[in-house]
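ESCALATION

Customer reports they have been waiting on this structure for their group meeting. Please prioritize. Original submission:
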Amino acid sequence: MPTQFARRAINIRRVAQQLDNAESYSEWRDAAQLHDQISGRTKWIERDDCSLYDSPELRIRHDKLRQLIDANNYQELLYALNEGVHGNMGGMGRSVLYNQAKSGTKQLIDQYVAAVIESLQLVEAAPEAQISRLDKIDFFRRASHCYGRSALMLSGGAGVIYFHHGVAQTLANENLLPNVLSGASAGSWICAQLGTMTDEQLRAGHFDKFRYAVPYTDKVRAPLSILAGVNDDFAVLDVKQMAMDSFSNDMTFQEAYEHTGRYINISIAPAEKHQSSRLLNAITSPNVYIKSAIDASSSIPGVLPPVTLYAKGSNGRPKPYLPSRKWVDGSFSQDLPAKRLARLFGVNHNIVSLINPMATPFVNDPKAQRRQNLIRTLVSSPLLHASKEVLLSVEDYASKLGASFISPAILIAHAVLDQEYTGDINILLTKKDFRWLNVLFSYEENDIEKLILAGKRSTWPKIAMIKNTTMIAKTLDGVLERLDAEHVAGDSGVAKHLIRTA
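Update from on-call: job pushed to the front of the queue and completed.
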């Protein structure tokens, strides 16, 4: 007869299997909570104290905010919030706090975040006699600047794009999409849809249902047969255009921002050797057509020709943008443009959805473990640096010998090695869900559905952390939008954003 310990182990394995096989977030959440109950982690969630964060400080601040909220004490609440609205108060933002239990983190952390949000909403609603509108605007701008904001960065990955579908659909369903998003190559396709579709359209299951218009042959997908040289019916450029036409429209970056309030960013790389990559958005390139940007960001060097950007001219008609320059796939230079997002939008927290086939097999989530492997870090860093130096030396030597035709390939390899592929929260396509044929838009039966579900299953364990790290910033952004709309009538959305992030 099994002992109590053995029965517990059997139950944990059974529930872990339910987690792995969950078909919906509610099903996964129920299994996660059951797992925590059986394993005893529910008690850890409910107990304040823990060496991983400063629980006494957080308890004091939470109780103070709750007391002021219940008393509708607007002035003291504003003073308490002015002491600091921080995403890592007392270390509560540490990723290790979300690795202890399946269903979330400390109950105190959830309660504190909820109290901060309720406090911010109460200050916004305070009567003019208690807190003037000018004082509100001053406070919320400073709070937003200090707190920062989160961004969702979507890597390139060609036909594995449906993993991004699962990620985006989950975040949209849970109202957790950050207002700042970036994408390169396949990620730019997702950005284009997120930036031009309303929350209602997204939550109606857009990414569950939508399929790119890629042509079929009798037995295999056209892109695979074209690349294999056995299909003369289509060119690769035709396939790309068909896919883009199935979801893109004629909005500019500025028009998309005004339509959805989301700041989408698309990475493009220069076709010329000595030019710099660019990040296109409503601030840097408001009149550029999003369709033109994703066209450039999807032009894989050596497979598709470089692209000239187009923008809406003063007469409302398309005209070349930077006509002397041509652009290619942005994932080869800045797949995840964290530094530029930080500078332009005050982003200090990044959520990464990674499907890049050149990076996925070699990237592990550095936030998943309490401690990093020191030996591996000490060995891998010099090796990576040495590899990059060797590539640059080879490229320089080849150019001097007149073999400049191999320079693009070498420089692309260097750019791939020279990037950072992880962020603060990492949603990674796992090796078991990755198939090279999918990269070429070639799918067997149910492959697309499996990729979407893989994206969802990789996102569900991150939802608790995403919620606690994004909801305060989203609340601040929402309050500022409403206050600015009342106070700065006639100013454009981009101008208001610049004021807030200055």
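Sent to customer with the following note: The chain has 23 helices and nine strands.
Escalation resolved.
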